[in-house]
Structure formats: C-alpha cells, structure tokens
Specification:
The chain is elongated and about 60 Å long. The protein is an alpha/beta fold. The chain has seven helices and six strands, in the order βααβαβαβαβααβ. The structure holds iron/sulfur cluster (SF4). The site of iron/sulfur cluster has 11 residues, from loops.
Length: 171
C-alpha cells in the first residue's frame, strides 16, 4: 500500500520494536476505510487507538510505571495470580502506590541467569518511562523451588538502567 512521506515519518515515531505491528494495524485500518493511500492522519488515528498508553504521559500527569519480573522456572507452574492480585489490590509490596499506578510489564527472567531482564527493562524504560521493577516473591524465597542464585545479578542489571528495584510482590 502507498504511504505519503508524512505518514512514513509519523510511523518512525512509534517505538521500533512495535513498528511493524503498527504498520500492519495502519494498513488494516486503511483497508477497512477503503482508502487507497496511508496518510499521516490515519497513522495518528491508529496510534491513538492501539498505542495510546505509550503516549498518554507526554500530554498529562506522570503516573508510576511498574513492572514485575518473575522466575522463568516457577512460571511453568504458576500463572502469576498472586503477584497480579497484590498489585491490583495495592497489597503487601505494592501498598505504596496510588490508584493511578500502572503495571506496564509482567515477564519472566528468560531462564538462568536472567538473560532477558536487562533487554526488556531497557525497552520499558526507553519507550514507556518505567519507574520501578518488583522482583517476584518466587525469585526471593525458598519453597517448592530454591530462591534464585542470580538475584543480585538481576537486580544490578535493572538498577544500572536507572530503574528502582523493590524486592517482593505478594509475600
Ligand atoms: S535466573 Fe533466577 S529467577 Fe531466573 S530462572 Fe534462574 S532461578 Fe529463576
């Protein structure tokens, strides 16, 4: 599908790792509307519709952006309900957050020794203004699984990106 130069420039503003997805969404919308060419207005309309959360803070008040990292091994047996409920209800390690705090990431470490964490934290920081990462309780505690031997390494890999770390979620 043909794109105007302005439309292409507008697409470049979308974070790189979701740009192809955004492009497909724009072209889908263009087809739905029956327009032969992608214009800058169509890109903006799609971005507001699908990627509005990323833009919200630029215009308005800054809310606290939170992510949770959890153990890849434990995720095989745990869907994460405890972490998510604790955040939703602002309990235990999430008590300090107000109602406008947003959970913008919930991901596993990627396996020993936490190879995925640094990369995803960087993306969330750059593109979504991440403030704080919680290390899930499964990383910290001995239980059915041993506590993580790489916890300090994971913590440092987050802090070096300028993001605060809180140890714990729902225990
Ligand atoms: S690095 Fe730690 S948190 Fe990640 S899978 Fe290994 S033990 Fe679990």
């Amino acid at each position: 599908m043909e794109w105007t130069q302005d439309a292409q420039a507008e697409l470049e503003k979308v974070p790189r790792f979701v740009r192809n997805m955004a492009k497909s969404a724009v072209e889908k919308l263009a087809k739905e509307k029956g327009v032969p060419q992608v214009t800058v207005e169509l890109v903006q309309e799609t971005r507001d519709k699908y990627f509005g959360l990323a833009e919200k803070d630029k215009a308005g008040k800054k809310s606290t952006k939170v992510a949770i990292v959890r153990c890849n091994t434990v995720s095989e047996v745990c869907p994460g309900v405890g972490c998510l409920r604790a955040f939703n209800n602002r309990k235990l390690h999430f008590e300090q957050y107000g109602p406008d705090a947003e959970l913008i990431g919930f991901f596993t470490c990627g396996g020993c020794s936490g190879r995925r964490v640094s990369r995803l934290v960087e993306k969330l920081k750059e593109n979504y203004d991440l403030d704080v990462v919680h290390l899930s309780s499964c990383i910290l505690m001995d239980g059915d699984f041993p506590k993580c031997p790489f916890k300090n390494h994971i913590k440092q890999s987050i802090e070096i990106k300028g993001v605060k770390v809180v140890e714990g979620t729902h225990h």
